[in-house]
Specification:
alpha/beta; Rossmann fold
């Protein structure tokens, strides 16, 4: 893997400034981040990652190989969990680990293990994306997965983004998942627009 050499200090607020909040105010929140796939939303995610590195935070990404997010972040020093058709988890080279996309329990176990190895460090997590998960395990199992994961990530040390393409789903399904998240945002041309924010979240 060729790692980008970037002076991350220049990006201390490249993501947070578009929300009107500071990095510290965003930390400790788990967001539903809605996106339009016709818009280069991966640039917004890239800014999120660069800002995390500027604050010496580690980044883990759950995505698919070949996705827009994977292509955008593959050369950054992030930990990649690649959701695939493989029936069993399979460690790959470098920073990549393969997970079966249709096994929510194994994905949850991977998140739990990740949290156990980052007991004291600040962690940023990106889940790309809930819309793809619907196709792999269905809406009901995806809902339960998201519910359990949100509870697992409840911490002042952790900032997480769960991506959702609302245009790909029935409005009732979108509304159902919005109801899970106390913090909601959407990708816009200028970066990120906050829709809902629960103050004082985290423990």
């Amino acid at each position: 893997m060729h790692v980008k050499l970037i002076d991350y200090i220049k990006y201390t607020d490249t993501f947070s400034k578009s929300t009107g909040l500071t990095h510290e105010q965003l930390r400790g929140h788990v967001f539903l981040l809605e996106f339009d796939p016709t818009f280069p939303y991966e640039k917004t995610i890239e800014n999120f990652v660069k800002e995390a590195f500027a604050h010496f935070e580690s980044v883990s990404v759950f995505t698919r190989k070949g996705s827009a997010i994977y292509t955008s972040l593959a050369n950054y020093p992030v930990k990649l969990f690649l959701l695939s058709k493989s029936p069993n988890p399979q460690a790959s080279h470098g920073n990549e680990t393969y997970l079966p996309a249709n096994n929510a329990d194994l994905i949850l176990d991977s998140i739990n293990t990740l949290l156990e190895t980052c007991t004291y460090a600040n962690l940023c997590l990106i889940f790309d994306n809930l819309s793809e998960l619907f196709l792999s395990i269905g809406v009901e199992k995806s809902f339960n997965f998201a519910k359990y994961t949100i509870e697992m990530l409840y911490s002042k040390r952790i900032t997480a983004l769960f991506l959702l393409n609302p245009g790909a789903h029935d409005p009732m399904v979108v509304s159902l998942f919005r109801g899970l998240f106390s913090n909601q945002a959407r990708c816009i041309k200028e970066g990120v627009e906050l829709v809902k924010l629960e103050k004082g979240e985290g423990a």
